[in-house]
Batch of 4 targets.
Target 1
Amino acid sequence: MTTADGCSVELYTLLPPAGEAEIVHAAVPAGAAVLDLGCGTGRVAHGLMALGHPVTAVDDSPEMLAHVRAERVCSRIEDLRLDRRFDAVLLASHLINAPDSAPVLAAVARHLAPGGRAIVEWHPPAWFDTVEDGAGGVLGEVGIRLSGIARDADLLEATVRYTAHGRSWAQSFTARRLDQPQLEALLAGAGLVFDRFLTPTATWFSASSD
């Protein structure tokens, strides 16, 4: 079973956490309420709950949400309009690198409480400059490999291939390269201000309301 954007629900049930919940937990107050945008099957949401955070999990796939144990909302991120704000809003999976991520960032901003933090995962510029076919690794029992990388100005197209238990899945994507000034300008367009990088690899950062 696949979602509208080509994600395999079965695959996502096999992918384990990779420390994402701990990154969020270290960046926000204890017990902070978290809005998890694009939660998938809940692998990050469940980790955050175990660390003491109430989580509202959002995805546009009912099949993905069926695996989530947190409070669930079925919605596209761009269309989400809840009547409350959150101490932290999580935007993982490099969604900010989508060719047009402005509507997604607007959703982040309108659900962020005053004094709250947006926690965002992105591909830094260096990744776009150096990544090659064959890049990847292993996450739990799932092998991951990139192929078909093609660059066109600030856009990169590729296919990510997953393998596990003798099966394979493929999903193509397009990502937009953002340097630091472009990132800060994009955030500013949503009323957000870059705060700081949260990991030594600079693949996660926090932002706040301006």
Target 2
Amino acid sequence: MDDFTRSVEAALFASDTPLGAEEIAAYVGEGDVAMALAALAERYAGHGVELVERGGRWHFQTSPDLAHILRRTREEPRRLSRAATETLAIIAYHEPVSRAEIEAIRGVQISKGTLDVLMEAGWVRTAGRRETPGRPLLYATTPDFLTHFGLSSRRDLPGIDDLRAAGLLDPLDEAIYQLQLENEVEED
């Protein structure tokens, strides 16, 4: 392994957060960061720790087949309320989205605390303001959201067919979805 690749490895190992290629380059200087990352990912494949990329950011993580060894030392995260889970899903699938849009999709008002919990977890961030009267804040997911849920990008979120196959759709939600599809067809 050449010195540049070793430098990239050291920067990733020492970092407490995932790093993008530009951030790595800022630490290690000039060189082919992409080639070094590919070489490291190949080198660590199948080891106890692996180099993975999530949302354009790289980090070392425990190999998934060995994660059970560390479970007892890991603090269990607080479970999200149903409102927070629904809000996070709406933001992930519709971002950037305003509070009013979230409330329209959910059909109920959300408390400010719900968004605060998601922002404290580092999964949601403000993404500017909509250019409409009142200039409402927009919300979007963060790279930490992708990392936490093991997604490379938002395109990896499950689609309606995946959710249906997993049995995660409520029969009432399924009926409403079918009615919406029928209404869209009639409007066309």
Target 3
Amino acid sequence: MAYKRCRIMNLIIISILFVAFYSFYRIISDRVCYCPRAHDQLLSLPEETCRQIRNSIILTQLKKYNHTFLMEQIKELQRCWWSVNGNALEDIRSELRACCNAGSNLLVTQANTHIGDYITYGTNRDKRIEVTENIHEMLPKVSPFPDKPFRRCSVVGNGGILLNSGCGSDIDQADFVFRFNLPPMNYAGDIGTKTDLVTANPSILHTSYSKLDEERKPFIDDLKAYKSALIVMPAFSFTSNVDVSFKVFHTLQDFESQQKVAYFHPDYLKNLALYWINKGLTARRLSSGLIIVSTALELCDEVTLYGFWPFSRGATGKPISHRYYDNKVPKPGFHSMPDEFFFYTQMHSKGILRLKIGTCY
């Protein structure tokens, strides 16, 4: 009898150890690396080749890189084992927190802005707006971001490279999903369905919703695709942005929407621009893509970019649309998407973030 009990206890202990070991393995493997899928492993490159490609990108200077060369290199890196470099990520995270601190300062809140304060506009530092009691009541009380980093984040650009990617499921597995400029959400297989934060450029409210003077209900109906996502707007970047940005707040309030709106802090955007200028970027303004990627690097332990591809041809050389839902090209001169993409490829090569190009199946 004692022998039987002992045998049962041994089996229980072995089972517990097996479950614990398997759970630990899944956590570690899920947390630190993205490996080629089974059918991709046949196409994976030797580690030495991958190391040479990474070093080539890391050592390339921004002013000397060639677009075609960069496209080819990052395409090859998709066939390489990728893992988070915790030290490299922590280095850039520390730099970003020291200069900008997205966790506290990305948004204008009641905690960092008080009644009677003045907010200086981002693009016209000679003009400012006083924070009245009414404006103060529109602001979130505190930053919506937790002190503890999100484990995994997806940053979903709108590039045509997402079409037929099959990346929707991968995107939705993240703990937090960032999107840009209220994109159409009817491509679930490629872009996913989850949204936690979405930016909104005031220009889309002018062109699609009559500045919210008349098209309030269609606006609210379209927002349902983002469920309870936080909407973030650059209300204080231009004086012309203020009115329509405030209308978004009142529209959401009037319709008792589940979404909330918040506003980028222009001081955060100014400090972040200086950070990237010191890294060599000379664009007139940072794109919302680079702003959110920088934010994600502060707020997330693992960052994967989808839909970031600034070229008119895909990784296979075939023409692709500018965005996954249309081919409208933005006005030139404001942003420098290829240069920003250069930094993404370097960060991918260093293990700071993962730049996903191509299919996810």
Target 4
Amino acid sequence: MKQILVADDEEVLRMLITDTLEDEGYQITEAEDGDHAYELMINNDFDLVILDYMMPGRTGVDVAKEMSDNYKENTPLLMLTAKTQGTDVEQSIEAGIHYFMGKPFSPIELAMFVEEILS
């Protein structure tokens, strides 16, 4: 079973993502902020990490940058965020984000995108 980390400070959004992806057969671990996400990523092997851009503690960009600077650089990172301006996307890519999806999003589109990333 594929393991996915979902890091977002909005509990309702984490629940929506978790429910959507669990229905597709993925095992989900949740983090409520960037610091918790970073700790989980250091101590676990995930097949995919979904990060929000703006979170308390480390931002999604901070987490991606720190992870790309160490041994976890090959873990696919998906930025799922409302910050979709060109500079936000550029900063995300420079930090090591592999995929980008804007909020609001369709749960069905998210599930299809995750399937595409992991296949």
